[in-house]
Amino acid sequence: MHFKDRVVIVTGAGSGIGRCIARTYAACGAKVVVADRDGIAGRQTRDLIAETGGDATFVLTDVGQPAEVIALVARTEVCSSYQQADKY
């Protein structure tokens, strides 16, 4: 699938399946918002994507906290960098 210039938020992207999904979307051309409650792991995923030429940003988010999920989508960084999040 082609996701060129699509914006994808991947929660739990700091490790495991979430990291794999984030990297796969990036490899397919998506702009990836890496969301995780572990700042170190999330930044590592962002950096791995960047090292392979992908476009990613990291937002510290605990999806167990509804307010943080709302903030993730509304974050100025995400909106100003990517304009919107596409839905899949």
TrEMBL record:
It comes from the Bacteria. One of its GO terms (molecular function) is oxidoreductase activity. Gene3D superfamilies: NAD(P)-binding Rossmann-like Domain. Keywords: Oxidoreductase. Pfam families: adh_short. SUPFAM superfamilies: NAD(P)-binding Rossmann-fold domains (SSF51735). The keyword Hydrolase does not apply. The keyword Oxidoreductase applies. InterPro entries: NAD(P)-bd_dom_sf, SDR_fam. GO terms for cellular component: membrane. Belongs to the short-chain dehydrogenases/reductases (SDR) family. This is SDR family NAD(P)-dependent oxidoreductase.
